[in-house]
Amino acid sequence: MKLRLKIWRQKNRNDKGSFVSYSMDDVNPEMSMLECLDVLNETLIERGEEPVTFEHDCREGICGSCGFMINGIPHGPQRATTVCQLTMRHFKDGEELVIEPWRAGAFPMIKDLMVDRRALDRIIESGGYISVSTGNAPDGNDILIGKDTSDRAMDAAACIGCGACVAACPNASAALFTGAKITHLGVLPQGKIEAERRALGMVGQMNTEDFGSCTNIGECTAACPKEIPLEVIARMNQDYWRASAKRRDDSVKPVTPVTRWNAK
Amino acid sequence: MTLDSKLPSGPIEQAWDKTRFDMKLVNPANKRKHSIIVVGSGLAGASAAATLGELGYNVKCFCFQDSPRRAHSIAAQGGINAAKNYQNDGDSVYRLFYDTVKGGDFRAREANVYRLAQISVSIIDQCVAQGVPFAREYGGALTNRSFGGAQVSRTFYARGQTGQQLLLGAYQALERQIHEKTVTMYPRTEMLDLIVIDGKARGIVVRHLVTGEITTHFADAVILGTGGYGNVYYLSTNAKGSNVTASWRAHKRGALFANPCYTQIHPTCIPVSGDYQSKLTLMSESLRNDGRIWVPKQKGDKRKPDQIPEEERDYYLERRYPSFGNLVPRDVASRNAKSVCDEGRGVGESGLGVYLDFTAAIKRLGEHVIRERYGNLFDMYQRITDEDPYKVPMRIYPAIHYTMGGLWVDYHLQSTIPGLFVLGEANFSDHGANRLGASALMQGLSDGYFVIPYTIGHYLASNKFAKVDSSNPEAQQAVANVKQITDKLLSIKGKRTVDSFHRELGKIMWEYCGMSRTAEGLEKAIGLIDALREEFWQNVNVPGSGDDLNQSLEKAGRVADFFELGRLMCVDARERNESCGGHFREEYQTPEGEAQRDDEHYSYVAAWGYNGPGQHPELNKEPLEFDYVHPSQRSYK
C-alpha cells in the first residue's frame, strides 16, 4: 500500500523544527508502524539524509520506550496498542499520517520524535515504592492477599510509563501515571503503611514538575495502551487529601527537576 | 591461564553458608568510603545497585535507555521459579537444583546451581514485600504454574507480565536509593570501555547518547549486568537495543568469555512474516501448560486446521515424550519443531510453523479460564497476526531468545579481571548448555539481591585501592580507544547501512550457528563473517556526527562487536565436538535424533581469551565435576 508520512523533524531542543513529508510506495500491511519507519530510515540513509530519530526498544509493547502521535492520537488509532505493535493494516491505502512527538512542558524535546521523560522517574523517586530493604521480607505467604485485591493492584501496575496519558491530556497532566502507582501499592497490605507519605511525595513532585492539573477529562485512559482505569486518579486524590489533612510535617520534599544532561 | 573457580569444599548444602562465613566484611562506616559502578539496570543490575545502596556503598548506575525501568528484563512473560513447595507436590531445593543441572545438560557448575536453588526461596519473599502482584488463589495464597523441564508447579507469575512486575520492584527499590542519594543514576549513557589499572577494574569510559560527550567514571569495583547477546542473530526476541558491547569490550581488556556457543532457541515465537521484520515476538512458554502442539501427518497438507481430523494430526511431542509431553525443555521442543518442518509438514505460508492449539483446553476449562490465564498473550498474538487464537490455533516457530554463555565468573561472580563482577545473563554460570523456563528471572535477582552484596564486600575488604582519575595513562588510553572507534565509524562514509550488515550477519549465524550446526558449516561461517567484517569497516555508511544524538552511530559500534563475537561463537561451536543442550552438532546425535554428549572429552567450560581481531582466541578449560547429579543421557520420554 501507499502512504504519506508527515513527520516532525527537529534537530535538537534549540532548533525550531517543522513537518517534512515522505512518500512510501510499498508498505506491507503486516509490518508494524516502527518497521515502517525503519524502512523509511534505510532509504533516507541511502540517500545521504539523516534518519528519523524515534525511541524504541522491546517492540513488544511492554518497555514503554516508544510512542508518538499519529493524526493527533497517542500511539495511533488502535485501542490498547503501542506503536511498536500497531500494524499498518489499520491504515488505508493512500492515507496521510501526521506523526509528531509527545508535546508537554514536562517532556522537553530531544530530537525528532524523542522527548525527555525523566519527570516520570522523579515522581517514582518521590515515593513510588515500598520501603523494604533486601533481606527484610517475611515469607511470601505470611501476607495473604485476596485475589480481587491482587487483581486490582495488577491492573494498575500494568502501566508501562510511556507518557501517552500526558500527551493525550489537554492539560498535560500526569495524574493517570501517578495514580496508577499510588493505586498499585496502596491497595496492597504491604503498601498501605506508607500510603499517605507516598501520596504526599508523589503528588508533590507531580505538582513541582511542568505537568498540568487533572480536570477529569478522561482522554488519558482512552489513550492508555494498558487501559489503566480512571479510578486510579480518584484513589490518588483520596490518599492525597487524607494525608494533607492529617500530616503537618514537611519531611516530604520534592526533587528539583533537571532538564539538562550531565555525563559527569 | 588456570581458572580458579573458588568453589568451597565440603557438602554442597553448606557451601554458600561456609563461603559467606569465610568472607571478610566491610563495616558500616567504611562502606560509604567505597564506590561501585553498576552497568545495566535490568533485574541483575537494578537489584544489585539498589541493594548495595541500601548497604551504604556509593553506587553509580548506568543504562543506555532513557530510564532504568526500560531494561529488557521487563519483557519476560511467564514467571520465576522458586523451590517453595507451596503446592505440596514434591518440590524441594534439591529438586530445583537437580532439574536445573539436568536441564542444562550437565554443563553447569553444581555449586552455583545449588546456591541458586537455595536463594530462590528468598527472592519470592522479597518481591512480595516490595508489592509485586503475583497471581493468587481466592484464599489469598500465592499460586503457581508449571514450566518446561519440571514435573512440579514451582513457577510464580504476575499474569503474562512477570518480568515487568519484578523489574518494576527492583526499579522502585533503585529509585528509593536514588532518592536517598546512595545511588546516582546515569540514563542514556552507554559503556564503551573498561579501565583496568594495576590489573584491577577501576572504571569505565562512557558516551552520553544525547550530547555525544565521552567521559570516564572511576570506582573501587565494576559490576556488569548488561544482559545477553542474542541480537548477534539480528532477529531474536531481545529488545532492539540489547547488545554485547559492554561485555565484549571487557573481554578485550582481559575478561575470558565462556561457552559463547550456548544459545537458547525458544520454541514458541510468532513466525517471521517478511524481509522488513525487525524482531521476533515471543509467546510465553506457559502456553504449553494448556496448548497442544501438532502438525498434519501428511506432508504439504494445505487444509485449514479445523478441517484436519483428529486422526490426521501428529501431536509429535506427546507422541515422542509421553511423560513430559508438551512441557519438554526448550531445546528439545525447538529441535522437534525444526525437524517436522524440515520433513515438509510445517504450517502457514512459509511452511516454517507448527500449531499450538487450545481447543481441548477451552472445551475442558471454558474460554473464561483461558482468558484469565493468557488473555494478554492471546491479545498480543491477535494484534500481530490478525487471527483469533480462541478460534484458530496459534502458529509458532522457534527463535533465538537467550544466551547461556557469557563472561566467565568464579563462585563469587568475579571475572578473570579482579574487581570486575558479572551478573545475570551477562555471565555464563548457572544454566549450562540450556536454561529452563522461568530461571532467568530467578538468576538475575539471585545474583543482584543476594550474592553480589556479600562477595563484593569480601573483595573490597581484601584489597587496597590507590586513588585514580582521568589523568591515569590507562584511562587516557581507554578514552583514546573509544574516540578512535567512533571517529573511524563516522569517517568511512560507505554505501551500506548498519542494519543491512547486521541483517546479513544474522542470516549467517542463524544458518550455520543456529538450531543445528556442523563442523563444515561453522568453518564456512567463519570465512563469511571475516569477509563481511572486512567489508563493514570499508563500506559502512554512518550518517551524522558524534557530537549529538546519533542512533546509527550507536548501532554501528554494537554491530562491530557482534562481528567479533559471532566469529568466537562459531569457533567455540566448532571446537565442541559433541551435542549438548542448545548446542546441537548434527554429527553427534543418538539414533533417535537426540543430543549426544561426550562427557569424557567435553565436560568442561570453554573460556576464551582475546587475541586480536580475526586472530585465533586462546582456549582455557575449567573442568566440570558432578558429585551429586550423575550425568546421564537426558530423557524426557
Can you walk me through this structure?
The complex is a heterodimer of chains A (about 260) and B (about 625). In chain A, a hairpin with a 2-residue loop joins strand 6 and strand 7 (about 115). Chain A is built from 9 helices and 7 strands; from the N terminus they run ββαβββββαααααααα. By secondary structure, chain A is of the alpha+beta class. Chain A has a 5-stranded mixed beta sheet with strand order 2-1-5-3-4. Chain A is about 35% helix and about 10% strand. Chain B has a domain at about 265-400: Flavocytochrome C3, Chain A, domain 1 (Alpha-Beta Complex), CATH 3.90.700.10. In chain B, helix 15 packs antiparallel against helix 16. In chain B, about 35% of the residues lie in helices and about 15% in strands. Chain B has helices spanning about 15-20, 30, 45-55, 95-105, 110-130, 160-180, 245-250, 315-320, 330-340, 360-365, 365-385, 440-460, 475-490, 500-515, 520-540, 550-575, 600; strands at about 35-40, 60, 80, 155, 185, 190-195, 200-210, 215-220, 220-225, 255-260, 265-270, 290-295, 315, 355, 395-405, 405, 420, 605-610, 620-625. The interface between A and B is large, with 82 and 89 residues.
Strand content of chain A: 5-15%
**Shape field of chain B:** globular
Relative helix content of chain B? 25-40%
Proportion of strand residues of chain B = 5-15%
Overall pLDDT of chain A = 95
Give me the CATH architecture of the domain at 265-399 in chain B, please.
Answer: Alpha-Beta Complex
End-to-end distance of chain A: 48 Å
* Overall average residue pLDDT of chain B: 96
Care to count the β-strands of chain A? 7
Largest interface: A-B, 82 and 89 residues
CATH fold descriptor of the largest domain in chain A: Fumarate Reductase Iron-sulfur Protein, Chain B, domain 2
Short note summarizing the structure:
The complex is a heterodimer of chains A (264) and B (637). Chain A has nine helices and seven strands.
Features:
heterodimer; A: 264 residues; alpha+beta; Ubiquitin-like (UB roll); Fumarate Reductase Iron-sulfur Protein, Chain B, domain 2; 2 domains; 5-stranded mixed β-sheet; two-stranded antiparallel ribbon; 34% helix; elongated; B: 637 residues; Flavocytochrome C3, Chain A, domain 1; 5-stranded parallel β-sheet; 5-stranded antiparallel β-sheet; 17 helices; globular
